[in-house]
């Protein structure tokens, strides 16, 4: 990593490992084609009739696609655990938001008075 | 794949750590918006009808464009690892072309939808008594618009990083950092596309 | 040897990349903001106690003025003072130097963060001068009131009419401020992970560095939905979308959830850095190691996670699902436990210590006492939804949050300033004035806030401009309490001028600080000159000890600097 002190010439003990090729390069083409394949599946699945099944398949495939991009294109597979934890926390917090707000949005029956 | 020694958190380069932190933050921002959209979508059946007025073909092409651009950007990263300036330029330019295509198709979609009265304020819909349905479009334009802004930001970042790196021959790791941001934009679209266009 | 030419005014106050200069820039800007917020408090408290009086320096306070004053007081103090002082100022001054490095990981990003913060301040101040006046909807900005009469059910207004309003400008100011803090947060986090001195493991970092970073991470993760929500509110105001429009299936409750989802973690965001500052000051002034370093850290992390699960306790009476209210109530009561543990650890640090009642120590002890006994306990009261149904929106809540915020944010900031002033400026603050400042602030803060508990229990609602409409609120001794609160508040505010004078005078003419380490502390900033040079250290330290090695039996001094061989 490049560390430049605003004061060159000062003794600066820096532990900088030479960045090794820390991640093997997965076969990006294979991943890309897999993504396209899943994408095609998504579009086909959306033509099914049962909306609930469509929702689960489509959303599920999105999660898989997103995960593939994260793991391989963004090299998350080789990143330190810290990054995994940060992303996990982000997702967790969204889950809290969803659960906490759900009862006040979805099941609520309110009369919608039309504008006079 | 050979066994590669994983980096520990002590060794992750600054630029990557910063971008991952930014990505986590952006996930929560978009996530907040998407969660609210999902909750409202679950509640209002009639939004499904509105979703049918979105242009599924345009959305499909756009998804293809973004997925491909993600592939291009990762090829640019590969080129950066090998310090191949010419290849970096080629792949990043291809990515930026994809960004333009995405924005172009989005503009076409927006124009069509606006001409049919599905606008952001949704006045025509409200006048027709479709107030609830007009909120679908509030979310639609906000989510896709905010996403579009990030597409522009990502493309600009990639452009400036490419220029800086190919001119000075230093800081090749910035290509990956900018690429990470671009992948985030792609992932958000991966989720937006079915949520908006496909589910009826 | 470090030589550089003396920097000019613009460099020091605007262009500098040095984290200490940037911290100072933030601090001055925040002093400006807090002066405005404090002035507003003075005006509306005078109005509450003496309703028909022309308030000196303001004039007659109309109901509309009152709304504007309380709204902006709340916004300025919560958003700009608290977040700014405790994240931006504390982080900028303390983090690089306490971890033994020269500057932040991204100095230019740091500079830009300040500029965006300044922009947010300008937008906020500009909002007072908008055609329809300053924002008067309560600092929590609930729609449809905050959408104003531009939104849903009114005839079409031009975009300019909607844009040039306090509503829009305040929201934009908040959005820019959040951007600045997000950028700063990334900077602080990367700096802390990547630029620590050799030998400084994470568990050898001073507690305040941990606290600021955890606070920043908590901020970053919880602000997202509010950023989205603010964007939605801006669109509702300026474009006429229907996100919060009940007529179109929207819900004001949606905003409440998005706001408080951030709003609750925010108060812990602004609590953690002062707790860190208190940890430093208490251990130095007790000449004892901080009790339970890992214990405190674990509790802080637990509290941070829990804080994202309690937000709807601000919405108990807003019409949320009562079953959800039960869950939120339980979590709210549980979250008191980790903080109680942290305070107990601080008390254990004090226990049988060689106590030095220096000025920072007085502020720290005052903070611990008031925060715990009056702020924390009343939080338990309010956390129980049954009591909150009675106390919600009364002055009891106002007293509670002033007793939690003021001791931590204000006393904590003063403790930090009195502690680190001579380090960063090279001159000493006048101790006599400091003591006067402390005692006046302590006494009159209590004089202001305590009556508010009693008023709240008597049923006095907040955000009411004129209590004379309510007969039951005009019975003795309630008006007297209001007057006591107001007069104390006024004296409290006036006492801050003592500090301001002391601060400015001492910067220019204070006694020079000759020692590097006047407090005989361990942490790295005390092992360099006062003020530190650009780059902070002439020779970068190598850390061998933890930050709280006081009174080690194997050492003859009662303190052990972290970089001692």
Question: Which terms would index this structure?
Answer:
heterotrimer; B: 200 residues; mainly alpha; Four Helix Bundle (Hemerythrin (Met), subunit A); 7 helices; C: 565 residues; Cytochrome C Oxidase, Chain A
Oligomeric nature of the chains? heterotrimer
Spatial extent as radius of gyration of chain A:
23 Å
Instruction: Tell me the CATH superfamily of chain C.
Output: Cytochrome c oxidase-like, subunit I domain
Q: Give the class of chain A from helix and strand content and strand pairing.
A: mainly alpha
Rg for CA atoms of chain C? 24 Å
Low-confidence stretches of chain C: none
- According to DSSP, the number of beta strands of chain A is 0
The largest sheet of chain A, given as strand count, sense and whether it forms a barrel, is: none
Q: For the record, give the distance between the C-alpha atoms at the N and C termini of chain C, rounded to a whole number.
A: 23 Å
Order of helices and strands of chain C: HHHHHHHHHHHHHHHH
Question: Can you count the beta strands of chain C?
Answer: 0
Strand composition percent of chain C: under 5%
Per CATH, the architecture of chain C is Up-down Bundle
Gross morphology of chain A is: flat
CATH fold naming of chain C: Cytochrome C Oxidase, Chain A
Topology order of chain A in helix (H) and strand (E) letters: HHH
Textual characterization of the structure:
The complex is a heterotrimer of chains A (116), B (200) and C (565). By secondary structure, chain A is mostly helical. Chain A has a domain at 28-104. Chain A has helices at 28-45, 51-73, 81-105. The radius of gyration of chain A is 23 Å and the shape is flat. With 200 residues, chain B is mostly helical. Chain B has one domain (14-198): Four Helix Bundle (Hemerythrin (Met), subunit A). Chain B contains 7 helices and no strands. Chain B is elongated. The model of chain B has no long low-confidence stretch (mean pLDDT 90). Chain C has a single domain, classed as Up-down Bundle (Cytochrome C Oxidase, Chain A). In chain C, helix 2 runs antiparallel to helix 3, helix 2 (19-49) packs parallel to helix 4 and helix 10 runs antiparallel to helix 11 (322-350). Chain C contains 16 helices and no strands. The mean pLDDT of chain C is 93. The longest helix of chain C is centred in the N-terminal third of the chain and has 36 residues, at 63-98. Chains A and C meet through helix 3 of A and helix 7, helix 8 and helix 11 of C.
């Amino acid at each position: 990593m490049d560390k430049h002190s605003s004061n060159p010439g000062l003794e600066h003990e820096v532990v900088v490992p030479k960045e090794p090729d820390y991640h093997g390069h997965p076969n990006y083409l294979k991943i890309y084609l897999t993504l396209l394949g899943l994408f095609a599946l998504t579009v086909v699945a959306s033509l099914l009739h049962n909306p609930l099944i469509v929702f689960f398949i489509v959303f599920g495939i999105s999660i898989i696609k997103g995960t593939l991009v994260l793991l391989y294109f963004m090299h998350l597979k080789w990143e330190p655990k810290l990054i995994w934890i940060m992303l996990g926390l982000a997702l967790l917090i969204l889950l809290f938001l969803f659960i906490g707000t759900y009862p006040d949005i979805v099941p609520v029956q309110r009369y919608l008075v039309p504008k006079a | 794949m050979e066994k590669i020694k994983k980096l520990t958190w002590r060794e992750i380069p600054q630029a990557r750590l910063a971008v991952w932190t930014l990505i986590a933050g952006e996930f929560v921002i978009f996530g907040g918006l998407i969660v609210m959209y999902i909750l409202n979508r679950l509640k209002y059946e009639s939004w499904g009808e509105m979703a049918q007025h979105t242009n599924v073909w345009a959305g499909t092409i756009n998804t293809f464009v973004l997925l491909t651009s993600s592939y291009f950007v990762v090829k640019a990263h590969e080129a950066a690892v090998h310090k191949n300036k010419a290849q970096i330029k080629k792949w990043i330019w291809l990515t930026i072309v994809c960004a333009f295509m995405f924005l172009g198709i989005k503009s076409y979609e927006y124009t069509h939808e606006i001409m049919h009265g599905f606008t952001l304020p949704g006045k025509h819909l409200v006048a027709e008594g479709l107030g609830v349905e007009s909120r679908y479009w509030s979310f639609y334009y906000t989510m896709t618009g905010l996403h579009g802004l990030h597409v522009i930001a990502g493309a600009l970042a990639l452009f400036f990083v490419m220029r800086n790196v190919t001119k000075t021959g230093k800081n090749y790791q910035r290509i990956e950092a900018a690429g990470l941001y671009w992948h985030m934009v792609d992932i958000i679209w991966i989720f937006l596309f079915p949520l908006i266009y496909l589910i009826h | 040897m470090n030589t550089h030419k003396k920097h000019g005014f613009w460099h020091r106050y605007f262009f500098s990349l040095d984290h200490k200069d940037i911290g100072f820039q933030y601090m001055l800007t925040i002093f400006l903001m807090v002066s405005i917020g404090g002035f507003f408090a003075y005006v509306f408290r005078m109005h509450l106690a003496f309703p028909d009086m022309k308030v000196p320096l303001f004039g007659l306070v109309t109901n509309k003025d009152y709304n504007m004053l309380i709204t902006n007081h709340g916004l300025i103090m919560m958003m700009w003072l608290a977040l700014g002082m405790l994240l931006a100022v504390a982080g900028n001054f303390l983090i690089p130097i306490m971890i033994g490095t020269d500057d932040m990981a991204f100095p230019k990003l740091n500079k830009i963060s300040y500029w965006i913060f300044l922009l947010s301040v300008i937008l906020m101040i500009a909002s007072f001068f908008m055609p329809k006046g300053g924002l008067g909807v309560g600092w929590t900005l609930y729609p449809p009131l905050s959408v104003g009469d531009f939104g849903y059910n009114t005839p079409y207004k031009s975009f300019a009419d909607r844009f040039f309003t306090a509503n829009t400008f305040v929201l934009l100011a908040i959005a820019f401020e959040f951007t600045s803090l997000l950028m700063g947060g990334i900077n602080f986090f990367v700096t802390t992970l990547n630029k620590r001195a050799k030998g400084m493991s994470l568990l050898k970092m001073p507690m305040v560095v941990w606290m600021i970073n955890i606070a920043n991470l908590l901020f970053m993760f919880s602000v997202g939905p509010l950023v989205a929500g603010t964007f939605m509110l801006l669109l509702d105001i300026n474009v006429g979308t229907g996100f919060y429009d009940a007529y179109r299936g929207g819900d004001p409750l949606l905003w409440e959830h998005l706001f408080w989802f951030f709003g609750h973690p925010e108060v812990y965001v602004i609590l953690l850095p002062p707790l860190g500052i208190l940890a430093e000051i208490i251990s130095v002034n007790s000449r004892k190691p901080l009790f339970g370093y890992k214990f405190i850290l674990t509790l802080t992390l637990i509290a941070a996670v829990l804080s994202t699960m309690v937000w709807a306790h601000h919405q108990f009476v807003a019409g949320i699902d009562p079953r959800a209210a039960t869950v939120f109530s339980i979590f709210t009561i549980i979250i008191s436990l980790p903080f109680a543990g942290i305070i107990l650890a601080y008390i254990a640090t004090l226990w049988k210590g060689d106590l030095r009642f220096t000025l920072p120590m007085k502020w720290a002890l005052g903070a611990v006492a008031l925060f715990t006994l009056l702020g924390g306990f009343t939080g338990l009261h309010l956390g129980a939804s049954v009591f909150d149904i009675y106390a919600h929106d009364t002055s009891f809540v106002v007293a509670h949050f002033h007793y939690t915020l003021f001791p931590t944010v204000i006393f904590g900031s003063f403790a930090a300033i009195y502690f680190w002033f001579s380090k960063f400026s090279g001159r000493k603050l006048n101790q006599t004035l400091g003591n006067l400042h402390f005692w006046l602030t302590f006494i009159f803060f209590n004089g202001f806030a305590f009556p508010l508990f009693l008023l709240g229990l008597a049923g006095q609602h907040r955000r009411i401009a004129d209590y004379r409409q309510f007969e039951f609120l005009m019975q003795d001794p309630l008006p007297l309490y209001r007057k006591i609160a107001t007069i104390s508040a006024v004296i409290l505010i006036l006492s801050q001028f003592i500090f301001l004078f002391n601060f400015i005078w001492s910067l220019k003419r204070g006694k020079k600080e000759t020692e590097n380490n006047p407090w005989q502390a361990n942490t790295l900033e005390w092992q360099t000159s006062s003020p530190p040079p650009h780059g902070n250290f002439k020779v970068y330290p190598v850390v061998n000890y933890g930050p709280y090695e006081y009174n080690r039996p194997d050492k003859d001094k009662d303190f052990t600097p972290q970089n001692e061989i």
